[in-house]
């Protein structure tokens, strides 16, 4: 019996991906069934007379805003904790080990953006979505990879994980720089001041997590008003959480474990339920061939693997380091990185909101992600068909790392 067989169903790598697929299917049904009008009204109906923000940046408070600007902060907090852990105690603390996935991730973000821009230069308004195909969904990518079981080399799996984590960091930076509008100076100053206080708490040895959550909530409130997208507060909060306490324990790893299942089985599915579905009524061939849909899909399917492969092998030549796997295996992994889904949908929502352009965005993201998953699986299936299964080696590696607090068991 393999170690994965002894896990509870919610602990398996594939489960979050299947839950997201189920949420997407339900979203399609709700948006195209008899309850579509009620579902839309439920999401967009203003709660009382409440609004978020001031002046031109004010938005009516509704369920859609709560999910995208509040619940997703917790998702980014979780991603931020993972990023810090990998940087402080994980593989990223070694610059040489981090070089290949770092350069690969940069190439994997740049190439899809160029594909998108090339197909949308005729309409300047569409260019705001250039970052949509640049993102990778960690949960889906790792979940799809796990379908191949232990035949996938451990180094290849770690490369995809590192690539996706760095990709998420890049997406966070993009959101902060390019999708923040109507900046309010005093609120931005309040957010910065709160962040500085939290850093001082960290340096002063404060390890009580509830204090960081409380000040993180304050910083989120300032961010929400400031015009900088509020999800950035989640990442900044994660940066201040202590890695170790005086007894050698890890508040950060404890927080990450506490959030893991909430993020995977509540927050991400709820986001997919609200944002992944596409209204099929009136959507014809022109919608499928819309420049936005084509740019997003082509960026994910072709741009991602092309950018990752070129950048990674160029880095191998420069630093004289071997690739973590064979060329066909690397190609399969690069294709799986084209599964954008949650992050791509999130950036698409920031770029175009709930306008008429939301439909081609979703078609492009879902179509491109599905094709990337299928092509990646096919390539990896053939590339690893002669590989010798080694579940015990990977399990031992992860158990050893978990004992030392390097990363959580996956």
Fold and architecture overview:
It is a single chain. With 410 residues, the protein is mostly helical. The chain has one domain (56-392): Na+/H+ antiporter like domain (Na+/H+ antiporter like fold). It is built from 16 helices and two strands. The chain has helices spanning 15-32, 36-44, 63-88, 95-120, 138-146, 154-178, 185-203, 209-226, 232-240, 251-275, 285-288, 291-319, 327-336, 341-352, 358-383, 391-403, and strands spanning 51-52, 59-60. A two-stranded antiparallel sheet has the order 1-2. A hairpin with a 6-residue loop joins strand 1 (51-52) and strand 2 (59-60). Helix 1 (15-32) crosses helix 5 and helix 3 (63-88) crosses helix 6 (154-178). The longest helix is centred in the last third of the chain and has 29 residues, at 291-319. The chain starts with 14 loop residues before the first helix and ends in a 7-residue tail after the last helix. The model is unreliable at 390-410 (pLDDT under 50).
Overview features:
2 strands, 410 residues, disordered C terminus, Na+/H+ antiporter like fold, mainly alpha
CATH homologous superfamily caption? Na+/H+ antiporter like domain
Q: What's the overall geometry?
A: globular
Radius of gyration: 21 Å
Spans with pLDDT under 50 lasting ≥5 residues? 390-410
Report the CATH C-level class.
Answer: Mainly Alpha
Order of strands, widest sheet? 1-2
The separation of the N and C termini measures 18 Å
CATH architecture field: Up-down Bundle
**Strand portion, in percent?**
under 5%
Count of individual domains = 1
Instruction: Return the string of H and E elements.
Output: HHEEHHHHHHHHHHHHHH
């Amino acid at each position: 019996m393999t170690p994965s067989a002894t896990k509870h169903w919610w602990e398996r790598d594939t489960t979050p991906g299947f839950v997201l697929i189920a949420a997407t299917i339900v979203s399609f049904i709700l948006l195209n069934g008899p309850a579509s009008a009620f579902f839309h009204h439920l999401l967009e109906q203003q709660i009382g007379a409440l609004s978020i923000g001031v002046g031109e940046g004010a938005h009516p408070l509704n369920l859609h805003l709560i999910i995208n600007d509040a619940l997703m902060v917790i998702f980014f907090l979780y991603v931020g904790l993972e990023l810090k852990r990998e940087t402080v105690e994980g593989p990223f603390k070694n610059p040489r080990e981090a070089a290949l996935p770092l350069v690969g991730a940069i190439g994997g973000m740049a190439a899809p953006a160029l594909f998108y821009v090339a197909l949308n230069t005729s309409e300047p308004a569409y260019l705001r979505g250039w970052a949509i195909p640049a993102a990778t969904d960690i949960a889906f990518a790792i979940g799809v990879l796990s379908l191949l079981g232990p035949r996938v080399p451990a180094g290849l799996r770690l490369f995809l994980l590192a690539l996706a984590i760095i990709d998420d960091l890049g997406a966070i930076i993009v959101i902060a720089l390019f999708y923040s509008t109507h900046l309010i100076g005093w609120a931005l100053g309040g957010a910065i001041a709160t962040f500085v206080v939290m850093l001082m708490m960290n340096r002063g040895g404060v390890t009580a997590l509830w204090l960081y959550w409380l000040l993180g909530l304050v910083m989120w409130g300032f961010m929400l008003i400031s015009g900088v997208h509020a999800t950035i507060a989640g990442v900044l909060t994660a940066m201040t959480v202590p890695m170790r306490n005086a007894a050698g324990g890890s508040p950060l790893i404890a927080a990450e474990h506490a959030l893991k299942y909430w993020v995977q089985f509540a927050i991400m599915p709820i986001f997919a339920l609200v944002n992944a579905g596409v209204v099929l009524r009136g959507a014809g061939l022109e919608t499928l061939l819309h420049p936005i849909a084509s740019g997003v899909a082509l960026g994910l399917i072709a741009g991602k693997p092309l950018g990752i492969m070129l950048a990674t092998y160029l880095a191998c030549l420069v630093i004289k380091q071997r690739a973590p796997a064979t060329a066909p295996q690397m190609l399969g992994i690069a294709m799986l990185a084209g599964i954008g889904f949650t992050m791509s949908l999130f950036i698409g929502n920031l770029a175009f909101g709930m306008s008429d352009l939301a439909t081609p965005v979703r078609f492009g993201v879902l179509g491109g992600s599905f094709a990337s998953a299928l092509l990646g699986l096919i390539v990896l299936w053939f590339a690893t068909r002669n590989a010798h299964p080694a579940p015990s080696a990977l399990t031992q590696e992860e158990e050893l790392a978990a004992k030392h607090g390097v990363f959580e068991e996956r």
